[in-house]
């Protein structure tokens, strides 16, 4: 059989690439004798922007980061000739022309509608409407799609597309609620953990990277993943330094103690093991923190973009690990603003139980692989 994996990949986001790899590896494990490939298609052009920096060294590190991500796509994901097709009908024709027996759709925010052209009254090609193949949603996420805000045509298109999936597995509560609206009663929707829970971290990548750079990360340190205009972090950084913490970042800022711009995805996923805790806006940072038994304090930049009905992929993740609301810092654009970081860290540590974390990790892996096995053709 020919099996296609329709997913996000290839940009400069560690989590996006690692979820693609984890899904690909899991499907290959269930279909060891079949032809499995990541569908070499993007519905939009990725933003491959260098970090704003202040030195020639960091600019050179950025070049190395670009190269590592390109090599990851080519050599690890085995995608060599991918193409961007923004026209939805043309994209669907391209996918259909590859004649897949099964197409797995997921994970990441693949079912979002944010990437559509302005004023386009339809749905994205990632929903695979009318594509002839067995189609399975596997840990899919619709990000912030709100049923009540869709046009009548979009509602109808999504209802048709949703009913064409043989199995539906979603990774967050907001997406569960969307499919319940689309399908009504009588349709089974599975709650499936993210594929990265099945990935076995190889720490030789990060160990070799740090050794080559001559970097030693102190026991009391914090990794911060942030947007370039997150100026609020300057005060947080000052407070953490006064408490004796070393600050680690993957982009150059004046207050960072250790800057690691040129990490590959395989290197970054092991970094979380060596820090005390992480401050981030990225969902997969949270996943890999859990896999490394490291607390993650998570925030979102814009509540309206990331959350639907008070739920989001970030909130779902923290709820699954019983770390909500303690580890959720909130939305930057909310009237309350971000919660106090140190108080949130202390509250999180009060409920952070490593044995419970490990039990949930194992259960997530089992649920994901069981879903794959159950939906196998």
Note down, in words, how this protein is organized.
This protein has 2 domains: 2-197 and 363-374, 3-Layer(aba) Sandwich (Rossmann fold), CATH 3.40.50; 201-361, 3-Layer(aba) Sandwich (Rossmann fold), CATH 3.40.50. The chain is 40% helix and 14% strand. Helix 7 links the parallel strand 9 (221-224) and strand 10 (246-249). Helix 6 (204-213) crosses helix 8 (265-271). It has helices at residues 14-30, 56-76, 88-96, 152-163, 173-183, 204-213, 233-242, 265-271, 283-291, 303-306, 313-320, 341-351, 354-374; strands at residues 2-6, 35-38, 41-42, 83-84, 102-105, 134-140, 167-170, 190-191, 221-224, 246-249, 258-259, 277-280, 296-300, 328-331. The mean pLDDT is 94. It is of the alpha/beta class and 377 residues long. The strands form 3 sheets. A 6-stranded parallel sheet has the order 2-1-5-6-7-8. A 6-stranded parallel sheet has the order 11-10-9-12-13-14, sandwiched between helices.
